[in-house]
Amino acid sequence: MLSERLLSAAVRALGGKYFRLEATEGLTELPDPEPGVRYMLYMHVPFCEVLCPYCSFNRFPFSEDRAKAYFRSMREEMRMLADKGYTFYEVYVGGGTPTVDMDELAKTIGLARELFPTIGDVSSETNPNHLVPGYLEKLSSLVQRLSVGVQSFDDGLLKRMARYGKYGSSQQILERIQAVSDARLFKSLNVDMIFNFPGQTPEMIDHDIACVKASGATQTTFYPLMVSPASRASIEKTVGHVTYDNEAKFYHQIYDSFCGGDHPEFRPSSCYTFSREEGQMIDEYVVNYEQYPAIGSGGISYLNGSLYINTFSLRDYRDRIARGDMSVMARTDFPKRDEMRYRFMMGLFGLEIDKREWRERFGCSVARGLPVEYAFMKANGAFDRDDDEKLTLTPKGRYLMVVMMRQFFIGVNSLRDQARAALPEDEARLVFDGIEAGRSDARCPMASGAAAASAVPASQA
């Protein structure tokens, strides 16, 4: 699709301009909060039991001592935000695997509620092997919105991604999610999926959709495969050669399956998130909250038109917090035009732009502020409603936003790649060894992780 290729190239060029990691001299803390702004707090937990070869997020192999020291530092950093006067209304805990140390996670969420009593819901990511009684009993008292990283219900793909041995077969994963759903432990239960894997077929997509619907989950997010330059080699070695030839076809297949017909079971809450009920929020904080400070190694904040990147080094993170600094080490400022581009992208990704709010914020219309972007989308049939009040999307427009978000997050992943490349040698070796362990697991899908994943029958979860 020509429009997809042009849009990919344009966003890639902008990403190359802004997603460059250069330490900002003298930067030791995030800015103070602005009056009247509703903030969400993001916490990053960079530990996994085994590292997936294709993942670009900041992560390290789990060890109990390393994790406990890290969580202590992250709680200190949270206190720094409280001292600066921040107020938060929601918390999102991402990773890595946030549930890798439940006792420390409980202490951290407990402190967040103590420091910021305005917090309503807490969202957390987890992996399928943690959907077992010991974890769920603690999680259900801490977290209202849980997102389970599944990626695919195809056993062949799970093996190639080094996930089968760690998390069990697709049937085991499905049964565990069904048990959690039946128990109604969480306000929102989201299943994270990925589409456009090499070798994926329409029949495999249909199977994934059927499993998500059968799981009873209240929400699902189908991400397009996002391949940064540094992760491409790992993906192609473990999964296969990446192309975008089938991406549009798969996306429309997914959207129509969830939201098509006269009485759809799901409704879109973003361009690639589908919910059974209104008011769901998992992985969508970039839409629901314009500004969000991030704590933890590898966290990325967006505040008042600037992007702030936290150190990726665990040792540097510990040292910064110990001397009373926050973990932020780099800052990129967006000029007004690029801030408009960011809000244009996030607004339409969330399915609409309120034109009145836009004019109040930027002092101009969308068409006047972003004439090239607006004209491109309009010429390509992206807009369904385009009047004085709102911009909404056609089916083609929704796919173009998926393309835009895919390229945007590839740019963010490139930023993470740069940060990882700058790690001290011993920490870089730690990550490399963890990735090699993941590759070994992919070659031997019934490795010891399978026993751990199957230790508790799904029917008991």
As a percent range, the share of strand residues is 15-25%
Kindly identify the CATH topology of the domain at 38-335. pyruvate-formate lyase- activating enzyme
The largest sheet, given as strand count, sense and whether it forms a barrel, is: 9 strands, mixed
Q: How many DSSP E strands?
A: 17
At the first level of CATH, the class of the domain at 38-335 is Alpha Beta
- Based on Cα principal axes, name the global outline: globular
pLDDT under 50 segments (min length 5)?
442-461
Query: Percent of residues in helical segments?
Result: 40-55%
Full CATH superfamily name of the domain at 38-335: tm_1862 like domain
Average pLDDT confidence is: 86
Q: Going across the major beta sheet, what is the strand order?
A: 9-10-8-7-6-5-4-1-11
The assigned CATH architecture of the domain at 38-335 is Alpha-Beta Horseshoe
How would you describe what is shown here?
The protein is globular. The longest helix has 27 residues, at 395-421. With 461 residues, the protein is α/β, with parallel strands linked by helices. Helices cover 48% and strands 17% of the residues. The termini are far apart. The chain has a domain at 38-335: tm_1862 like domain (pyruvate-formate lyase- activating enzyme). The strands form four sheets. Strands 9-10-8-7-6-5-4-1-11 form a nine-stranded mixed beta sheet.
